[in-house]
Prior knowledge:
Elements: H1 4-13, H2 18-33, H3 41-55, E1 64-71, E2 76-83, E3 90-96, H4 110-120, E4 123-127, H5 139-154, E5 160-170, H6 172-186, E6 192-198, H7 209-214, H8 223-234, E7 257-262, H9 268-281, E8 285-290, H10 305-322
Parallel strand pairs: 3-4, 3-5, 5-6, 6-7, 7-8
Antiparallel strand pairs: 1-2, 2-4
Amino acid sequence: MTTQNETATENWRAKIDPQQAAALERNAEIVENVGGAGETIAEIRTQADAARAVWNEGGPEMAVQQDLSVPGPFRDVPMRLYKPTDAADMPVFIYLHGGGFKLGSELSNDRQMRELAQVWGGAVISCDYVHAPEHTFPDPVIEVTAVVEWLAENGGDLGLNPTAMTIGGASAGASIAFGVAIELRDRKSDLIKGVVSIYGVVDDALDTDSMRELGGGDFLLQTAYVAQVYADYMGDADRNDPRAFAAKGDVTGLPPAFIVAAELDPIRDDSLRLAENMTAAGHPHRLKVYPGVMHTFFTQSNVIDQGKICIGDIADFLKETVGAT
């Protein structure tokens, strides 16, 4: 006899975009070809980077593509700068990769960053941040805040406009991006003009409708895995600190936001809650739920049309928020 949960899962499976399904199969092949997922944290990181490198092949070329590092509180922070033209005084979007607070680098979304810079016409900086378990909350937030302040003082030397900076990220990176925006707001700083959250970790709820319906393992993220990610990142820190989970905080004084959610993502409802909070507060924001896709669809923009659409939507938000060159 088919249970109610099994029926619900089948109903959700029927909504999977064929391109999303093909991307899942392709990713499994890529992971196998690079030697599997790995076992130790070092192996897992190495294999994940190798798989991402395959997804990042192709795409537009940039007039400027520069690797650099800037001084931070824990280390020199690596980043990559993308400019579609060599113009000066360009608005800039600072991007923070996903990876469960443990994996990834400034190169994780190399292709998407080039695509975004080309479509938008502004500069993009893909910035790394310190990872768990070596560093836990709030270290990544403090590190990236220092990067933003460095860019405010020195960005002009890179052809950037320090008065037109935005920030965003995917998944764990979105958590950190909002954390930076909140940290700067609390310091009475207006350096950040807009925030983009791409299927962001903006709450730690495990009892939402989306988690109950999609967290069984058929849609990439499992409930137990998500719970462990939160535990490893937060350690003994206060989980009510909005710099970790933006949906728990007051949105007053934050910059305008674009909130991206994936329909078939177990943490989808966390983004919806954040958007509801902003609506209730009269805070300027935009929410878009992309149909038929899962957590990580943005990172497969070369084969998933919704990923391409998302990049265009982010470009539109950035144009409206800080303009373009």
